[in-house]
Amino acid sequence: MSNELWKKDNPKLLDLNNMYKPEVISKRFLELYENEWRSAFQELSIQQESQEHVAETLLNIVMASYSVSLRMSGFQLQNLQSSVKRDMLLLNGKEDHLDELSERNKTLYELATSNIMDLRKILSPTAIPAIKNLVLDNLSKDHDLSYRKETKMAAYIDGCVELTWLMCTLDPPMHLETCKSQDPASKYFRSYAKSGKCVQYCVWPCLCLHSNGPILKKGVAQMT
Fold first, then answer.
1. Which residue intervals define the domain Mitochondria-eating protein C-terminal in the entry (predicted)?
2. Strand, helix or coil at 182?
């Protein structure tokens, strides 16, 4: 069965491909901000007086999720590619370089590599719990995580981990851009509660198709 035919006749993969479309992910990312983020903000505001501190906590979660997802997706892809290359070299009696494969087997390797991206999509749901644990471990080094058991916060964390993992398993990965205090107003961010000429604090990251790529969803910043 050809590569394209296998994809065409695989309903599960077709569903996954739709889930991994950048426009679908960007829409869900906006919904995460408008729903889970707002609910978590209200829940956390009961415990913390400063809105800026609450926003910072929520921003740290989504950016930690992105950082861990980006790192782990890179490791995963590298390991899968190395495994395919190693197996093909062994089948050809080689143990050193891909360059020593025949032209035919180079083509097969390239085909296998392209299908690795589909394999990652199929395996994606099984990786998310492990990614979540890594995110929480990462955050616990510098932050109090007593809030993690709150209902709305838990839903927000789950949403951040799932969506950033989807972003980072694309090729190239999607990109999240933040801003910092005193940055000038830019096309990447819209105002939160008040407008102004420079940033007071970042509320929500900007989502780009890839690093230095076009904006899919503007971020949100409190301006001054």
1. 25-221
2. coil
- Number of residues that make up the chain: 224
How many domains does the chain fold into? 2
Query: Rounded to two decimals, what is the model's pTM?
Result: 0.83
Mean pLDDT within 52-81: 91
The mean pLDDT of 18-44, rounded to a whole number, is 95
DSSP notation for 63-129:
HHHHHHHHHHHHHHHHHHHHHHHHHHHHHTT--S-GGGS-HHHHHHHHHHHHHHHHHHHHHHHHHHH
Domain range enclosing 31: 3-171
Chain-centroid distance, C-alpha 73: 9
Are 180 and 147 contacting, i.e. CB atoms less than 8 angstroms apart?
A: no
Residue 87 tokens read as 């197996």
Do 55 and 162 lie in one domain? The reply is yes
Q: Are residues 154 and 52 in the same domain?
A: yes
Cross-strand partners of 198: 184
Q: Looking at the structure, do residues 186 and 214 belong to the same domain, yes or no?
A: yes
